[in-house]
């Protein structure tokens, strides 16, 4: 984004329009899903969630995080997405992670902590 001199909003707009141009014709002609038969409310909800929240808001916030934290730290926080999704599933869906999931959440979180420059415990001599 920096090399292209784009701010987060412009990058999100380019990504959203590019996805629209690529995916809508593919779905219309592939016959995988029939948009013409789908309820209009469902299409509007998916357009809001996938088109606005996912494509635009997340890219704007990610671009802002990279500007604030730097490229490597900003990218490291993207790795927290699966861990945060698993944690949010507890109150939202009532779904508890398994033991293997908790190990993965702890490993991902520790990795992000180290990569972003979190202080490590010092060994006493």
What's a concise summary of this model?
This protein has 125 residues and is an all-alpha fold.
Task: Please give a structural write-up.
There is one protein chain. With 125 residues, the protein is mostly helical. It folds into two domains: 1-69, no CATH class; 70-119. Helices cover 73% and strands 0% of the residues. Helix 1 runs antiparallel to helix 2 (40-69) and helix 2 (40-69) runs antiparallel to helix 3. 3% of the residues are buried.
Q: Helical region count?
A: 5
What count of domains describes the coordinates? 2
Nearest-integer average pLDDT: 81
Could you tell me the strand content as a percent range? under 5%
**Uncertain runs with pLDDT below 50, 5 residues or more?**
none
- How widely separated are the two ends? 46 Å
Order of helices and strands: HHHHH
The Cα radius of gyration reads: 19 Å
Give me the secondary-structure category.
mainly alpha
State the helicity in percent bands.
Answer: over 70%
Beta strands, count:
0
Note the quaternary state here: single chain
Main sheet properties: none
* Coarse shape: flat
């Amino acid at each position: 984004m920096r090399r292209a001199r784009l701010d987060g909003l412009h990058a999100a707009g380019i990504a959203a329009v590019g996805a629209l141009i690529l995916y809508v014709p593919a779905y219309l002609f592939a016959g995988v899903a029939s948009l013409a038969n789908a309820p209009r409310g469902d299409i509007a909800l998916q357009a809001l969630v996938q088109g606005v929240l996912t494509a635009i808001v997340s890219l704007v916030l990610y671009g802002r995080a990279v500007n604030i934290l730097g490229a490597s730290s900003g990218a490291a926080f993207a790795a927290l997405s699966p861990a945060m999704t698993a944690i949010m599933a507890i109150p939202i869906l009532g779904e508890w992670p398994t033991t293997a999931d908790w190990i993965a959440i702890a490993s991902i979180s520790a990795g992000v902590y180290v990569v972003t420059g979190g202080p490590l415990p010092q060994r006493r001599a």
